[in-house]
Structure formats: C-alpha cells, structure tokens
Amino acid sequence: MRTSEKAETSGETGEFADPVKEVRRLDRVIIRFAGDSGDGMQLTGDRFTSETASFGNDLSTLPNFPAEIRAPAGTLPGVSSFQLHFADHDILTPGDAPNVLVAMNPAALKANLADVPRGGEIIVNTDEFAKRAMAKVGYAVSPLEDGSLEGYRVHPVPLTTLTIEALKDFGLSRKEAERSKNMFALGLLSWMYHRPTEGTEAFLRAKFAKKPRIAEANVAAFRAGWNFGETTEDFAVSYEIAPATAAFPPGTYRNISGNLALSYGLVAASRQADLPLYLGSYPITPASDILHELSKHKNFGVRTFQAEDEIAGIGAALGAAFGGSLAVTTTSGPGVALKSETIGLAVSLELPLLIVDIQRGGPSTGLPTKTEQADLLQAMYGRNGEAPVPVVAPRTPGDCFDAALEAARIALTYRTPVFLLSDGYLANGSEPWRIPDTGELPDLRTAFATGPNHELADGSEVFWPYKRDPETLARPWAVPGTAGLEHRIGGIEKQDGTGNISYDPANHDFMVRTRQAKIDNITVPDVEVDDPDRARTLVLGWGSTYGPITAAVRRIRREGGAIAQAHLRHLNPFPKNLGEVLQQYDTVVVPEMNLGQLATLLRAKYLVDARSHTQVNGMPFKAEQLAAVLKEAIDA
To answer: How many angstroms separate the Cα of 272 from the Cα of each of 295, 320, 393, 479?
Structure first.
C-alpha cells in the first residue's frame, strides 16, 4: 500500500499494563478528506496541511470542490474533497491515488472509492449511512454491510455521535455540535500521523475569537478525535513520516498556495519597481482570492478596485498604467474574452499591464472550480488585428511568486501588456515555499519621461511619445500632468515617433511590424534540458504540468529508461534556443490539459512532429498514466 512501510515499535502488554500501540515509519502517504460541501473538508485539509508544513514534510495538495455555492446536501455533485501528499523527501504532485480516504457520508464514499487502491484504508462516518442518504446516491444496500469493501481496511467510526457526546457539556444545539465533526476527524488523523496540535488549537481560538464557546467546542472535538485514536482498539497502528530535511535548501519556509504566492509576487514587484500597485478586477473563480488578498495590503501602496464587470476592471487598470502605476487585472478564461478589446488597446498604447488569467475548464462558464490549460491560444491570438502579447506561465504554486516578478519585468521594460497564465490546480494547490530575502529580488525600477526627447530640423526640442529605445523598442512612459509631455491616446493607429493619428498604409505596416519585433526581441532565458542519459525522446511541458511530468520522468529513470525533460515558462516569445533543442530529439511528447495548443504552436513555428498527449477532464495529470505514455513513446 505504501512505500517503505516499516514497523518502528511494538509491544506486548502484561495483564495490568497499558497497551503500547505499534508505530510504523513511512516515507510518504496520500490522504483524501471527502464529504458534503458543508462538512468543512477544505478547512480540515488546510489545517492538516499547515501542521504538516510546520512539521517539515514536503507536501503537495489538491483541493477539489463543487462549482455550486451550496450543492444539494448528500448528493454526488455536492461532494467536496481535499487531497494531501506528504513525505520525508522531495515530491512534486498531490499523488495519483489516496492511501487513506476519510468519507463523511455515502456520497463521499461513492464519489471517491474508485480512486482508492485495494488495501487502502477507509475511515467512514457510519452515522450518515441512513437509508435515505444512501438512496440519494444509488445505494440499495449499505456498502458497509454488503461485502463490497472487503478489499479495503475499513474503519467504521460514528463521527457525528462521538462529536455530539464530546460536546454535551457546551450547551450547543445538536446542529451546532454536528458542525464540529470535521474537527473530530482532523484530531483522529492528527493522531494517526503524529501531526502537531498546538497550531490548530491556536487557529480555532483565533478564528472563533468572537464566539469563545464555539472556539472551545471545536478544540474539544479536535482533542476528542485525537483521544479516540489513542484509545480505540480499531486503530492499532499509527504512522510517522519524518521531516524532509534533505529536500529543502536552508532558509525559512511557509506553506503557500499559488494564488497567495502570486499576490505576494505582485506586491514584491511593485516594491522592487518603486511603483504603486493597482488592481482592477471583477470577481471570478478561481482568481478571486488574488483580489481578496491584495485588498489587505494598503500599507504597501496597493489599491484594489472591484469593478462592476470585467471590461470596467481592465479599463481602470489600463488607466492606472497610463497614470504611472504597476497595473494588474485578474480573471479567468471567460473574463479574458471580455477584456480582449482593451488588451488590444494596451498593445496600441504600449503601456505596461499584467493580465493574470487563472485558467479553468471551458468553454463559456464551463467548469468554474476545475483546472485546464486551454487559454493558451486565446492569450496568444485572442484579439483583433496583429496584437502580440508576451505570455509567462508558472510551474508550481510557489513559482507563481517568481512568475509574477518576471511578468512585471517584461511589462515594465518593454512597455507592453503581459499575460500571466496560471490555472486552478496551481491557484488552489499548495507546497512549502522558501521566503526569499529582499536582496535576492530583481531591481525593476524604470524611469518616467521627464522632458523633450527629440530635436526637430529647426533645432527646437519636442516630446515624441513613440520615439523608441533602440535596444528594447519600448516607447517613453510619460505620466499625465508632466509639463510638456502631453500626447494623444486612443485606439486609432499612431504615427511613428509623434504619436499623431495616422491612416497611412506604410506607417501602419511599420508600426505593426515594430510592435511584433518588440515582443520577438524580448530577452528571456534559454530553455534548460534535463538529459543525463542522452535520450532520444524529449518530454516538453508548460505551466502546471511540471509536477506530474517530472514525477513520471523520475519513475522512468528509476526503472532504467532514458528520457529528457524540458519545461517552458516563456510561451511568447519562445526561448531563442528552443528550435535547436527540439531538433536534437527523435521524438517530442507534449502533455497538455487541452487538445494540443502548445503542440500546434511548436509544429507551426519549428516544423517538428510534436506528439500531443492531452487531457481535459478538469483534473491534473496522474504521474503513473504519464509514465505509461512516455514509455510507449520511448519504445516506439
């Protein structure tokens, strides 16, 4: 069931001795909490994750929840889950399949059972397996009694009853007491895996500070779950996973989600640029957390504007860019479609603007809480006319911080809007992140125009808003109100240099080609290839596929296979050496959570027979499945 499972201690007890439970040491484990969307599974998973991070394990998480704010209770569409993979070594994914499933009701069991391997542990809240609840999900007979779970190690636990009993002295109603059953489950799992408890108790007291009785009730339920594990005979074994000390370079670490890391990256970019940060945004899943987080940081010069719609959000952000701010708009795929005309205006005005797209399943409203990588071609070409925009994609939740700084560097240096393509998997997932020293961060300061920059034939000095830097082709950034720097703005084509309105065909051709050349000549690092065995097959990914691809590559190499790996952060422009790299391999495999968008771009630009492997089921790739695909490519 698990790798490297070893008995650490066991003991025989005398007639009057307290039993000593066996403790087994593991190198990793995958746990999934699952229940109704009102059962607090995300909170439970978050707390278990926080304590695991503080303990020093490497970890990766996969929250998975319904799109409905409150789906019908007890139904399959209403199941919410949180999967956590933690280990004593470096890991990259939330795991392919849970070793332990905590199922709070029949719907949670039915929705997740197929993912649990034979021999896995299942902890079931038996109180919820009433006839009516089972009928909602198609159970005619209880799966706890019909033998269908014989291949698993099942622990039937009356979680609701035990929680209510533990809280009987708090004077709570039955409904109020039942709400704490997730804390009972958290306490039980914390005992099973030797997780710290102090942080969770402090968190509960802080969260319910205005309701101290509720706070103490939750703490009591949490402790009751721990004590239940310690005393019940059903749980004869607990497990230890040592800290992953060798996996991390020295430093101070914290657990961080992709959206939080991206938010911090934007704040850091504004400080490194010495510019105020302005966010013009309309709430949309899964990007809303960035708006929520940035609204907390007014002390860093952050200004947030929750607009009435997507178009107003980006319009305000572009106005802030014109006014001299580091301007950002956040959205998901449907919002990008609405913002497209204003993005084109930003291309024409040549102003720095960050468009943060947290991708989700589409088209249209699609799958708001599920992940996908299907906005790449929209980011590349989803505007009228020739309107090139750089595209940057982070690879892990923590990498969202660095990607935000890189997107800001490009926007400020080259005076252009920039797409930052994250996705729901990165946004909601989390991992340990080393907090950087401010001295490690890049200097992003850029100079505003302060006076005339061009001399006319008669010797007079004037300001030309489209006179370009010869190296970057960026135009001057002139803040409104600066005397003598008045110039026209708007979407109609500009005359080279003067910025006057121009309908001249030759000028339009020149401006279109110049804007394209500016993007093509952006300095980005070469793509790095990991190829220790001089393989014939290369797997090339982008964005959040990094974790599953790398895990699959590790599996293949452990089994003696030879495969090379490269991963793209910059999707427009591509790294200068990418074409040369692709030509070195007989086979190039491109896994994507779309129908082959990057592969299409590679085929068109480099004439390479890139082999797509695609998935659009709203979930990230599984490493085992990818490994099988890559083995086939190697053997072909």
So the answer is: 19, 18, 21, 19
